[in-house]
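Retro notes, item 3 of 5
We never archived the inputs for the S-adenosylmethionine complex last cycle. Fixing that now. Sequence and ligand:
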Amino acid sequence: MAATRPRRARIKPKEEAAYFSSLCKDKNGFEVKYINSFKGRGVFSCCHFQQGDFLVEYRGEVITHHEHENRQRVYHDALKIFMFEFRFDGKQLCVDAAKEDGSLGRLVNDEHVNPNSKMKTIKVDGKPHLCLFALKDISPGEEITYNYGDFDWPWRCKVFTNGTKFSQKKQHSCMSVYYYYYNTILTK
Ligand SMILES: C[S@@+](CC[C@H](N)C(=O)[O-])C[C@H]1O[C@@H](n2cnc3c(N)ncnc32)[C@H](O)[C@@H]1O
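Structure as it came back at the time:
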């Protein structure tokens, strides 16, 4: 009878997230690539991930709502985007990831139509950590994205050369037009 190799148990995604969060380390399997001058950099998968897998932590300094408001007053707009507000144990908190520290989570871009990951809060040693988990199977070469939330982020509201502004609802059907415009005109 042929010997069967015992299958290695899959580490539970939340346990893996807690492990990497406690080490303040990103797991392997990703690379940062420059996309273009509009979107900047993005995080791309270098291997297969399964739906539900832990991907990366949105690492940074956890600050109170009060401190978040203070920093909003002094930060340049380009830094404010790295402040992620969330609720934890009944409190309004924020992860400030403005500092370029080489971590991956802060470089994951927004995708509100078809994101492949979702941000969840996990508790490690009583402290909150924001972690991205795969919403679907992810192949090598795919960009990791998540929905930044309901807000009129400037890149979601496309203004065409003739000044036409597309609402978010109309925008879905206009996505392909936009991408044509974007790929052929803006990036040339
Ligand atoms: C948290 S940072 C993400 C990393 C950023 N791309 C970089 O290179 O530093 C958020 C910024 O990325 C850009 N961004 C994120 N998602 C985008 C999208 N879907 N389209 C265009 N720009 C996007 C915007 O400039 C936004 O202010």
